């Protein structure tokens, strides 16, 4: 059974746990450095990236997670998680800084502009439910980064080798195809 | 096709706040302190609840200039309060682009009979509750998030504890009932029948439920998480304490690490004086904000 950690400082942790368990994976909550031991992959959930960053600093998790990413541990970041992964965040300092993408926060406006759509993602499937909540987007990608989905001219899902990042929240829906893609073809 | 303001989009916003702390602030400076401490959102107000108590008179929606100032100061979501049943205050806040509206008993109700029809709005709402009936009525009207009412502005956790225990005990009862018992329970609670069926099916409330109304210390926040709250609102507890920066940071950490008592001990050391509390027994019935709304 694949053992997958979920950064559990704040945010949509429960949803990822449920979806992972439905995919027959073991879900491990990560709050401290010791929880990172022996993971096959790590999920960085949606939530507030500024809050997660403060807690990553205070509990000295930032460097250990960056190192694991550099060593090749598969990671999947959704919304705030994408912001944590990105090498560059417009107007803010980067966090883990491991995924070769430039990300802009709150790209679609405030909560009243948050929305849901169906996305066709050639590598994964058609009509995938995507919920965008005060979502970021990927402004540009480095060399060799696979752009998996775009919406309205903006990159919303991309893969940098063992790192997967998306603007929206697959964990809020019952459609587990993106997580399944991560777990089966990247972990 | 792109859809805004759907139930999923509105409830999902609250799901992203789970495990976090939402702090009351009255200006840009406080909002920045809250954000730097790790708040997941701020509530923009003209006065914190304990000052509303002191001031007396009619408490209304904040001056839009204050809300605007706070929205301009931070990148985290900004919430604001409208009076119970005040359609226009709510629409004004929605038009300003506030991320969440609290239809709040902390303000003087505008309507003693009807709450807002929250499903009509694109912006999501949070509402207070003391028991499952009240929680279910608010969800029925379209609330996307709940919080305990507690007793705002008192720095006394006792009412919030009472409310979270009551709601969760009633949810457990509904989950354990057989299908044919639910209609009678719906009648007794004054709760929509379909909602009780949903609660039974999924085993919990369909929206997140935060603690509010009396959180004054890191241990209070952790207690509410222990009792099953999804996150914490802190009203007067931060900016009425001796050292708001330290209190704010400590309450954020205690909420994340609510089962790690060594951490809570560490972060509680030399915090300074918390807000001065009020014994609930000293409040007359008409001073109890939790009695507002139904």
Automatic annotation (TrEMBL), chain B:
Residues spanning the membrane: none
Entry EC number(s): 4.3.3.6
Residues binding D-ribose 5-phosphate: 24, 153, 214, 235-236
Binding site for D-glyceraldehyde 3-phosphate: 165
Pfam families: SOR_SNZ
Protein family according to the UniProt entry: Belongs to the PdxS/SNZ family.
Record function comment: Catalyzes the formation of pyridoxal 5'-phosphate from ribose 5-phosphate (RBP), glyceraldehyde 3-phosphate (G3P) and ammonia. The ammonia is provided by the PdxT subunit. Can also use ribulose 5-phosphate and dihydroxyacetone phosphate as substrates, resulting from enzyme-catalyzed isomerization of RBP and G3P, respectively.
Protein name in UniProt: Pyridoxal 5'-phosphate synthase subunit PdxS
């Amino acid at each position: 059974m694949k053992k997958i950690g979920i950064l559990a400082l704040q945010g949509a942790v429960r949803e990822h746990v449920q979806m992972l368990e439905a995919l027959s994976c073991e879900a491990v909550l990560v709050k401290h450095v010791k929880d990172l031991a022996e993971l096959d992959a790590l999920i960085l959930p949606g939530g507030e990236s500024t809050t997660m960053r403060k807690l990553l600093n205070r509990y000295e998790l930032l460097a250990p997670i960056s190192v694991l990413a550099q060593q090749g541990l598969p990671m999947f970041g959704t919304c705030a998680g994408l912001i944590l992964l990105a090498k560059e965040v417009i107007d803010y300092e980067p966090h883990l800084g491991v995924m070769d993408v430039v990300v802009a926060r709150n790209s679609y406006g405030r909560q009243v502009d948050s929305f849901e759509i169906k996305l066709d993602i050639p590598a994964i499937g058609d009509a995938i439910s995507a919920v965008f909540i005060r979502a970021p987007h990927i402004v540009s990608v480095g060399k060799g980064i696979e752009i998996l989905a775009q919406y309205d001219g903006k990159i919303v899902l991309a893969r940098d080798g063992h790192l997967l990042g998306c603007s929206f929240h697959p964990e809020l829906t019952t459609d587990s195809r993106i997580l399944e893609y991560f777990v089966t073809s990247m972990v | 096709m792109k859809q805004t303001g759907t139930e999923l989009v509105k409830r999902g916003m609250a799901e992203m706040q789970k495990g976090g702390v939402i702090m009351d602030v009255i200006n840009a400076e406080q909002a920045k302190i809250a954000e730097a401490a790790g708040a997941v959102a701020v509530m923009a107000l003209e006065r914190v609840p304990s000052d509303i108590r002191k001031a007396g008179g009619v408490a209304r929606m904040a001056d839009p200039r204050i809300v605007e100032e706070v929205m301009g100061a931070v990148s985290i979501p900004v919430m604001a309060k409208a009076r119970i049943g005040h359609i226009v205050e709510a629409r004004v806040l929605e038009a300003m682009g506030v991320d969440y509206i609290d239809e709040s008993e902390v303000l003087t109700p505008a309507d003693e009979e009807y709450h807002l029809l929250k499903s009509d709005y694109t912006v999501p709402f949070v509402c207070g509750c003391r028991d499952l009936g009240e929680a279910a009525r608010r969800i029925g009207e379209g609330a996307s998030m709940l919080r305990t009412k507690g007793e705002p502005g008192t720095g006394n956790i006792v009412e919030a504890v009472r409310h979270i225990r009551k709601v969760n005990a009633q949810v457990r009862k509904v989950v354990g009932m057989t299908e044919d018992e639910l209609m009678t329970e719906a009648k007794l609670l004054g709760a929509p029948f379909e909602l009780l069926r949903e609660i039974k099916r999924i085993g919990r409330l369909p929206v997140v439920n935060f603690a509010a109304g009396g959180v004054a210390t890191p241990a209070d926040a952790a207690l509410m998480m222990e009792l099953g709250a999804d996150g914490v609102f802190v009203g007067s507890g931060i900016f009425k304490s001796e050292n708001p920066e330290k209190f704010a940071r400590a309450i954020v950490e205690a909420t994340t690490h609510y089962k790690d008592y060594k951490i809570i001990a560490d972060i509680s050391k030399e915090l300074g004086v918390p807000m001065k509390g009020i014994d609930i027994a000293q409040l007359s019935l008409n001073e109890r904000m939790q009695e507002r709304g139904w």
